[in-house]
Amino acid sequence: xxxxxxxxxxxxxxxxxxxxxxxxxxxxxxxxxxxxxxxxxxxxxxxxxxxxxxxxxxxxxxxxxxxxxxxxxxxxxxxxxxxxxxxxxxxxxxxxxxxxxxxxxxxxxxxxxxxxxxxxxxxxxxxxxxxxxxxxxxxxxxxxxxxxxxxxxxxxxxxxxxxxxxxxxxxxxxxxxxxxxxxxxxxxxxxxxxxxxxxxxxxxxxxxxxxxxxxxxxxxxxxxxxxxxxxxxxxxxxxxxxxxxxxxxxxxxxxxxxxxxxxxxxxxxxxxxxxxxxxxxxxxxxxxxxxxxxxxxxxxxxxxxxxxxxxxxxxxxxxxxxxxxxxxxxxxxxxxxxxxxxxxxxxxxxxxxxxxxxxxxxxxxxxxxxxxxxxxxxxxxxxxxxxxxxxxxxxxxxxxxxxxxxxxxxxxxxxxxxxxxxxxxxxxxxxxxxxxxxxxxxxx
Length: 444
What we know:
By secondary structure, the chain is mostly beta strands. Helices cover 10% and strands 32% of the residues. Residues 1-12 and 190-200 have low confidence and may be disordered.
């Protein structure tokens, strides 16, 4: 029988996945660095494979995305685009704010989650509305007041700080108002010098909905839009007032408008039906929680799902920080596809779809991504000095992941060694506990 193992190509000790290795000799490194030109936005690797782009191209995007140029030699097969930048979304402007969205027509691979960024100045109101989907929000700048009413007539008014989360179940009535000015505002994990002093009032957040096709007709229902399309005689009967009261309805519906000066404290609204609180509360004050380092010592993960935020039945979340050079270990999610929003820093991730198919993507602040259901992946902080911050969301009641290292450590060691063709001693050294965020220098 032929021994095919001897026919395998020998790895180049100077290269790691097509990139220069740390073992490259200092005298050869300048030659190899000159040969590979991903840092110059050209698809040429350290072996000299490839050639310059001479036709039209966006150099800025090429430099931002070296892995699209073929920098990762372990990629294979045809993987669809799994990345979208909010900077590529159309921004809609209103008196007192703006919104920009990422829906399934922008990122077709994102079936479960659609996302948006929304900004309100002080006093501005995202008008009264509801959705046929659940709405999830994370406040990363400023302070807002949310109010909501459910089908029982129970209500909630709550002021949220940076880091806080809300979840409105499908069909629940709600509204949001911006509360503070830039000089008084708090920001999430950003340096003091980056507060955009002198700009308009700043209250901004990430929104998500549990349907990638959020932009479809019949998804969002604004109250004044409905009233404007209802006969005045019916309105008069419904509210027990004169028809003339509805002569000045805004048209078209404003979506965001400049509202009244907000009170400094949450308004007290007596309600015989009771309040939404405890397990029924639509808000979770993550800003008031102590977040400890994650296993692996490379950063923090704050999980907010139905186990600590009971009302959030269809969107589970994790807020992650990862130190420079750190790694979110190789893993997959058994219960849902993963949607991500990168808030700060630079990252790289390879997504494995099975059948020798994988693709590597580069990310920066403002990017969104989707990792398909059960696909294997990692996230690496590629910055030398900046903490990577991202939010990951799942259309599920809980966050769940399976660690590759833990799986191998808890499988018969001889089977793992023979499968991966690695020494048995290496298998014995694998940790039996998840190492969620690996600190730089601890991943070897």
